[in-house]
Amino acid sequence: MISLAVRDVPGAGVWLDEVDRASHDSSSFTIDTLRRLRTLRSGAPITLLIGADQAVAFHKWKSARDILALASVLVVLREPFGSADALLAEMRRSSFWTNDELAMWRRSITSASLDSVSATSIRERIRTHGVQSVSDTIAPAVLDYIRQHKLYEPSR
């Protein structure tokens, strides 16, 4: 579905390396994906886009500091962390990050306003109100795929 969503976006693509590895191994970690990507695209900039909820938990990720050495991070504010100050205060509570690292995190926060719609809420809307209820939110090709495969329909 992601491939369908980005197929008309110039320069966009979907790389399934992490999904493929997870199907062969019991686990797949971001650090492993970034290391592999770095070998394939040695000089290319890599940016990891995450929500504020993941930034708060980032210190729990495998090799968190190594991830930051391989990729820049762009953090999108989402509730319950609607401001950079609220997010950083929560990150400071972990006692994992140094002041310099927290300053780096502050520079990584974008003020871009993204739609607050989540995959969970879209699936629930489809279950409750049908596929057409999300036609204003989902790319037409993805909507067709959901219809064709009868995804997220209520169990009978």
Task: Offer a concise description of the structure.
The protein is mainly alpha-helical.
Textual characterization of the structure:
α3 (30-40) runs parallel beside α5. The two termini are 24 Å apart. This protein folds into 2 domains: 11-110, 3-Layer(aba) Sandwich (Rossmann fold), CATH 3.40.50; 119-148, no CATH class. The longest helix is centred in the N-terminal third of the chain and has 11 residues, at 30-40. Helices cover 49% and strands 8% of the residues. The chain is mainly alpha-helical and 156 residues long. The model has no long low-confidence stretch (mean pLDDT 88). Strands 1-2-3 form a 3-stranded parallel beta sheet. The chain is globular.
**What is the fourth-level CATH superfamily of the largest domain?**
HUPs
Which topology of the largest domain does CATH recognise?
A: Rossmann fold
How would a textbook summarize the main sheet? 3 strands, parallel
- What is the CATH C-level name of the largest domain? Alpha Beta
Neighbour order of strands in the largest sheet: 1-2-3
Write down how many β-strands occur, each being a DSSP E stretch of 2 or more residues: 3
The overall average pLDDT, rounded, is 88
Judged by helices, strands and strand pairing, the structural class is mainly alpha
Order of helices and strands: HHHEHHEHHEHH
Count of individual helical segments: 9
Give the termini distance in whole angstroms.
24 Å
The gyration radius over C-alpha positions equals 18 Å
Strand content: 5-15%
Classify the helix fraction into a percent range.
40-55%
Unreliable stretches (pLDDT < 50, length at least 5) are: none
Overall shape: it is globular
